[in-house]
Amino acid sequence: MTEPNTNLQAAALSQVTVTDGYCKNALKKEIVYLLSLQEGRLLAGFYGNAGIKTPFVRYGGWESGLIGGHTLGHYLTAVSQGSVNPAAAETDRKKLFQKVKNIVDGLEECQSAVGTGFLWGAPNPENNVEAQFDHVERGETDIETQAWVPWYTLHKILAGLAEAYKLTGYAPALSVAEKLGDWVYARVSQWDEATRRRTLETEYGGMNDALYTLYSLTGKEEHALAAHVFDEEELFDRVLSMQPNVLDDLHANTTIPKFIGALNRYLTLHGRELSGEKVDASRYLRAAMCFFETVTTHHTYVTGGNSEWERFGKDDVLDAERTNCNCETCNVYNMMKLARGLFLVTGDKKYSDYYDNAFTNQILSSQNPETGMTTYFQAMASGYFKVFSTPGQSFWCCTGTGMENFTKLGDGIYYRNGRNLFVERYLSSIYRGEDMEVELTCGFPYDNTAKIKICRAKETFLLCLRLPEWAAGYPEAKKNGKPVKLLEGSGHVTVAVKEGDELSLTIPVEIGMKGLPDGGNAFAFRFGGILLSVDLGSEDMRTEKTGVDVLIPAGEPKETAVKVGDLYGLFEEPTKFFTREGENFVMKSEPPLIFSPHFKRYKERYAIYVRVKE
């Protein structure tokens, strides 16, 4: 395993301005949606449970069920991110920050009225605001009448409060979070082992992650001790064993955050004292790394997404599980968080490779660029189409993570190691640090040259540029118009630069193909890092419901198959089998297929994986 390198620091969201046109539109659409929602309606359930009269009525969809209140946590994180995002208009940032204050102040009022530190926004048919937690402790988990993942919901609220404080500095957010963390500790410290096991059988999001973060802000040992209650040691042991099929039939989005929490234990506590003892959290880091490796090696599609109907299957069974319910967006949101954290610890560029691919081909792909609405699933079977949420009714889990995804588009591009700057994603943007300002302009894959301008720098520094896994050859560089030698190491190329320098980096780009472990002749095609898919038309695009009010495309899959004259030649040099026409790529096959960037596809049926025969 890669040795930890804890000197890396991620650039703050407030330091990165994304200038890419597609992303600018995505942010704009998201902010319009966030500003259209009324914080009073998101707070309505919290006021009701606190006995405070309010003229507002809670939203419908999931917000009217026992999971009600989870959206407020996501929303609080999203408006906090948006309020410090320099790519947003200043007037919008001010409006978003006002919403941060309104929500935090509202939660503070509710918390004071309840008097225990507890906060809750879901319907309360039993006239007991803690009823869902009581039910879960007894193993009573009917989602309509007893309990629908209350700890998961609480995680979103606690995480939103922590992010509000970290991003905006609004002090009451930390005060409310601290009291809520105290309530958690008071409750979980009373559990016996049987109660703990029953409780942790029900999805609890990333409670360990949120509480470790809270501890990092408050320094209260109780918060770290409470976090550790949610560390599932048996699960970590199973994953560390690296045995085959260790994830089979596990609910993916229940499982991924547990390992984000394990990693956070390492980041927060490793080598430090807790309750008078020095913490060795290296095992938790290894568990997170093994889990990431298992998911990406055995359970991941070409988009970076995973799962079928929210669950992992057996190792390397992916083609057989391509349906209309693959790749829950929440899963990728969480896998990207895990990848980002592991890159910070290790500096291993495989984590940046994953983040970059998932961002482009799953996250950007999840938003309707006209409406700003987002997907729950993204089908991997041919013949289906993307189905998006509705503005005021769905409030799915992926609606909430969608809010967060599109207010932090600048995340994961720049990292610092001392005075050195790492560029991990080739997305047009500007990084403004205290000691430097760097402008990145690129249009991969269609323009295969990135231009990097050092607008301001106190001193000479090293620019460390990721060698992406999609590169078709070694890059070439020019500094101030003259060829310059690049030094290679740890999956990056480096060059020394100073204020006023302009660097151009040319990375060869070609068509590549990706298969499936059980796919036989099923292949997906990419141009550089951009996934391509085939337009299958828009006829009869009916939807149906699955799960709890989740919309999916209806009907049967439509197998897409072609013949090529030289299958071996296709494997060796796939670029030769395509003709480029702008952003379209015509496959020289029978019948000919027209591929185009999948992330831009939102109106029609598609095929990502194509059966190729000779």
What does this structure look like?
This protein has about 625 residues and is α+β, with helices and mostly antiparallel strands. The protein has a domain at about 510-614. The strands form 5 sheets. Strands 16, 17, 18, 21, 22, 23, 24, 25 and 26 form a 9-stranded mixed beta sheet that branches. A 7-stranded antiparallel beta sheet has the order 2-7-8-9-15-11-12, with no helix packed on it. It has a 6-stranded mixed beta sheet with strand order 1-5-6-10-14-13, covered by helices on one side. The model has no long low-confidence stretch (mean pLDDT about 95).
Tell me the span between the first and last alpha carbons: 41 Å
How many beta strands in the DSSP annotation?
26
Spans of at least 5 consecutive residues with low confidence? none
Mean pLDDT, to the nearest integer, reads 97
Shape: globular
Q: Sheet with the most strands?
A: 9 strands, mixed
Class by helix and strand content? alpha+beta
Gyration radius from CA atoms, angstroms: 24 Å
- Helical proportion, percent range: 25-40%
Q: DSSP strand (E) fraction? A: 15-25%
Figure out the total of helices: 17
Q: Which key features would you list for this structure?
A:
single chain; 614 residues; alpha+beta; nine-stranded mixed beta sheet; seven-stranded antiparallel beta sheet; 17 helices; globular
